């Protein structure tokens, strides 16, 4: 991405790979283009958008928790549920099931999400929510998790497995199992039955900007909920008008989040 500055890459988990190149990490990007009229520069209002950084491969299965005899590929069992009784993993097909949907976010959050409830305290800087009603199919659970900016829970360790399992039982009881974000990619070069090609779902990185406006990159005006339309003069060009109605949108290459309209010289 050109015209942006980045902090020195961190390797907080000492994996040997910069954090921003790992799944589930959220980089901070600061725009420093002098000719941009919308720029991150310490504004008091944060606009959070979700995007997936390309080129990051799905992480290897460093931790697994299969039940005895699983995966067994009985039929087209390419998706994984966790047993509510013991948290063990079971491969199954995408058929109807009374299963809970557990969503993970790679940044802390405590806000209300319609149709979901905060599942437990944050763990390793990640937040977890559970859908209020059951989700019948794994693919539906994957899609609805993505639609709220998260992903079906990725279990990386015994500690995380125990925390999530205990929290689901505490919130939802012991009757229904829950979907996790593991599936068998039948198009993978590593695919074989029953144990090859198992991958985690995409884990989007959250890019957070704080927004101000300026015509000269010096005199900043903060955009906030009470001041979401800002007009200022620009020598020889009339006015620059920057509007934002909702503070939400999607990042696009070479553009700005949806919901913004920019008219500048």
What would you say this structure looks like, in words?
The chain has two helices and 17 strands. It has 265 residues and is mainly β. It folds into two domains: 4-56 and 204-263, no CATH class; 79-200, no CATH class. Strands 5, 6, 7, 8, 9, 10, 11 and 12 form an eight-stranded mixed β-sheet that branches. Strand 15 and strand 16 form a beta hairpin. The longest helix has 15 residues, at 158-172. It starts with a strand and ends with a strand. Mean pLDDT is 73; it is low at 29-41, 46-52 and 231-265.
Short description:
The chain is 9% helix and 29% strand. The protein is mostly beta strands. It folds into two domains: 4-56 and 204-263, no CATH class; 79-200, no CATH class.
Which structural traits does this protein have?
disordered C terminus; mainly beta; 2 domains; 17 strands; eight-stranded mixed sheet; 265 residues
What is the strand content?
25-35%
| Arithmetic mean pLDDT | 73
Helix content, binned percent: under 10%
- The number of distinct β-strands equals 17
Gross morphology: globular
Q: Structural class from helices and strands?
A: mainly beta
DSSP summary: helix tally: 2
Number of domains: 2
Query: What is the distance, rounded to the nearest whole angstrom, between the alpha carbons of the first and last residues?
Result: 23 Å
Cα Rg: 22 Å
Ranges where pLDDT stays below 50 over 5 or more residues in a row are 29-41, 46-52, 231-265
Order of helices and strands: EEEEEEEEEHEHEEEEEEE
The profile of the biggest β sheet is: 8 strands, mixed
